[in-house]
Amino acid sequence: MKGMGIKMSFRALQEIIDISEKTGKKFWEVIMENDMNERAVSREDSFQKMYMLYEAMRNANDNYDKKLMSCSGLVGGDGEKVRIALEKGNLIGGPFVGETISKALKMGENNACMKRIVAAPTGGACGVLPAVLLTYEEQMNVDKDKMVEAMFVASGIGVVISVRAFLSGAAGGCQAEIGSASAMAAGALAYLQGADNEGIAHACAISFKNLMGLVCDPVAGLVEVPCVKRNAGGAVIAIAAADMAVAGVRSQIPPDEVIDAMREVGEQIPRTLRETGEGGIAATVTGDEIAKRVLKHTPIL
Amino acid sequence: MNVFEVMGPVMVGPSSSHTAGAVKIGYIARQLLRDDVANAEILLHGSFLATGVGHGTDRALVAGLLSMKPDDERIPDSFSYARDAGMEYSFGGVELRHAHPNSALLKLQGKNGNKLELVGSSIGGGAINIDKIDGLDANFAAIYPTLIIHNVDEPGHVADIATFLEKYSVNIATLKLSRDNRGGRAVMVIECDQEVPLELIEKLRQKKGILKVSYLSMED
Is residue A42 in a domain? Predict the structure, then answer.
């Protein structure tokens, strides 16, 4: 058996940072080389595969159909509303935040309408990363390679979260989905804005602390309400966290410990608030009525 | 998980765990059955049962059993494709012990008579784990070429199979063993770095004491 030379998944953000400092390689490069090692592929293959995912995000964004509604009729058209409001100059957050919110909603709506998206890390949270990254590329005039590097940064953070905690709402609540996507996006944005390794990790930590405890309470069990709008919230928190980290603000709790806390919180979230559609927003009077109406039409059990 | 389990897959929504993961469980089950599905009893556990319908888990599992992949835009209409393909299916609920909240038990019968009982769970982000095959622990992620060998629990099988693999230059990435009871039925799950040649699989099937050999290829 081989095994010895193979680097297993990263168990800590600090581990990525340590390798980066020891080898002089950048954060994203350490993660890419881990993939090259793990799948026995070349540098070009690994980079190209990530590039394809980024392009798939762009395609999904471009293919948004403002007229499309989900089967339940609960979701659709909101990303377009925000875009129009931005165009009219009615939004408080300015062009970057406004465009991010619009794109996050659009992608969430694509997903709810069973269109093709990129899980990042999940389908429910698929709007966060493309919203901040595509907006960044459009508005900051950066090289496409740099965007792919940022995707690797985000992925590496996601790998650590998957090892130390979880990435599914059923296991850990929405903090594990939108929370993780936001932490990944925060790290990616911090990198794009020139943060060092520590800055990247702390952007991730600050973002997580803002979404810790977020429950998974989808109305009728559908990835629609409140999931789509939480993509916008997660994206904006990522911007705030990255801005803090870039300014030199540091999390008083080390980033890996914050991820551990997310796990502990997730384990304490009751089953009714972990994607069962039996608590929180799902269990409101209106949520309950919607569930009865929607599920009446699709009985299998 | 590794980098591209976290980022991706490109998939049809709405849920990586309830839709994409479910397609993948169905797809892997179809591959391990080595037969077109004639009849599928699909039993949902936990969150798959509670919210599966709304996430299209039912359509996703059927799509996978029809060899569709998670980015296939026909997934929403898989029930009508199943009718066209002559595949019967039924749904029910089940309480599986020690199972992940997103799990399904599939009882499959193939058109050529092959049978398979599989428990799979969708562990987040579209990644899955195959927990059991024909009632025995399997526990693999379906991301490597994987050999699943059921044999009589007696000395020599592990050494024999390792030698076989070496002869064909197949490197073992991981190897797991378990059994139902001493001298009873044992299972070896071998994840490999290379594809296992069909010739070798046929040889294994003919070996004394080997009850069943399933193989999951990573090639399309």
Answer: yes
